[in-house]
């Protein structure tokens, strides 16, 4: 009986050992997948550029590689992200993959890094356990309550409609890439992925400044054109008075000034429209807000 007992005991030990290995593997699944991604994934030039500019940790690179990111043209992006015509998107994390809209304009290209980091944080959220998400959600909501930003609240209200139940997930990506000086808990969390997170926030602010500064400049130009048109209107009224009163000499003396002002206004309108078209072309490529104010030529 002893030999049989020994054989059964050995089998039991083998079974328990196998089950133990499975349990260890299950507990360390994310770690094993990260190791495999870091060992086998070969990033392209565009992705390597993102990594070097942002300075990702090994954990962040593993998450990124596992998401097999793609930098898409507008047509490919709309297909890959299944976007609707009214949706304003620069990136998405869809079916486990990261997609980022490719931006050609050099002054706006840094936003690709911000969007890539934003989507990476969605992929990272996907890796967290239920307990980790719950703990992090509480801190994200607490910090969100301290952010006095109407634009952010509008965005979150929109997400509540388009992605109900995903507020913490979205806050995780938005706060991590667009807002500086967060709580120590959040800063410690993001530091595990982005050793220099401030660089991402700076890139986002630079992108916003491109549009905000140019929009202000164009609004100033339009205001100047309209002021000149008001002067022209007064001058035209004065000319009508001279002509009606038979004051030919005064009329003829004012005509060259009127013609010069008309030419100046129309030149300014032409320059303004070229600048607006350029601005709107960039805005359209990013699904940003366009300028619709125009002026008809002066006469």
Explain what you see.
A hairpin with a 2-residue loop joins strand 2 and strand 3 (97-101). The chain starts with a helix and ends in a 14-residue tail after the last helix. The chain has 12 helices and 3 strands. Helix 2 (29-40) crosses helix 4 (58-66), helix 6 (110-127) packs antiparallel against helix 9 and helix 6 packs across helix 11 (197-244). Residues 1-11 and 20-24 have low confidence and may be disordered. The protein has helices at 2-27, 29-40, 45-54, 58-66, 74-80, 110-127, 130-146, 150-162, 167-178, 184-191, 197-244, 248-285; strands at 70-72, 91-94, 97-101. Strands 1-3-2 form a 3-stranded mixed sheet. It is mostly helical.
Helix-strand blueprint:
Blueprint: H1 2-27, H2 29-40, H3 45-54, H4 58-66, E1 70-72, H5 74-80, E2 91-94, E3 97-101, H6 110-127, H7 130-146, H8 150-162, H9 167-178, H10 184-191, H11 197-244, H12 248-285
Parallel strand pairs: 1-3
Antiparallel strand pairs: 2-3
Rg calculated over all Cα atoms:
30 Å
Shape: elongated
- Which structural class best describes the helix and strand composition? mainly alpha
Task: List SSEs in N-to-C order.
Answer: HHHHEHEEHHHHHHH
- DSSP summary: helix tally: 12
User: Would you report the number of β strands?
Assistant: 3
Could you name the ranges where pLDDT drops below 50 across 5 or more consecutive residues?
A: 1-11, 20-24
């Amino acid at each position: 009986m002893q030999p049989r007992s020994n054989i059964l005991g050995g089998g039991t030990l083998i079974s328990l050992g196998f089950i133990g290995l499975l349990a260890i593997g299950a507990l360390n699944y994310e770690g094993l997948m990260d190791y495999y991604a870091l060992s086998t994934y070969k990033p392209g030039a565009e992705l390597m550029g993102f990594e070097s500019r942002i300075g990702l940790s090994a954990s962040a690179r593993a998450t990124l590689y596992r998401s097999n990111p793609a930098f898409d043209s507008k047509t490919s992006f709309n297909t890959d992200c299944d976007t609707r015509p009214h949706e304003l998107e620069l990136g998405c994390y869809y079916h486990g993959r990261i997609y980022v809209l490719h931006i050609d304009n050099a002054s706006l290209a840094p936003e690709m890094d911000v969007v890539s980091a934003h989507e990476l944080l969605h992929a990272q959220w996907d890796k967290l356990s239920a307990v980790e998400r719950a703990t992090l959600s509480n801190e994200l909501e607490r910090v969100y309550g301290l952010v006095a930003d109407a634009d952010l609240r509008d965005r979150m209200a929109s997400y509540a409609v388009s992605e109900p139940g995903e507020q913490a997930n979205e806050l995780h990506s938005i706060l991590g890439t667009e807002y500086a000086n967060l709580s120590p808990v959040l800063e410690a969390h993001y530091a595990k992925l982005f050793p220099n997170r401030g660089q991402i926030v700076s890139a986002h602010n630079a992108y916003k400044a491109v549009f905000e500064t140019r929009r202000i400049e164009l609004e100033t130009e339009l205001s100047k054109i309209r002021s000149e048109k008001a002067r022209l209107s007064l001058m035209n009224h004065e000319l009508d008075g001279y002509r009606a009163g038979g004051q030919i000499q005064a009329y003829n003396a004012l005509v060259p000034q009127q013609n010069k002002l008309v030419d100046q206004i129309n030149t300014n309108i032409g320059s303004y429209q070229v600048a607006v078209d350029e601005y709107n072309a960039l805005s359209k490529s990013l699904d940003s807000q366009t300028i619709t104010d125009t002026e008809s030529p002066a006469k």
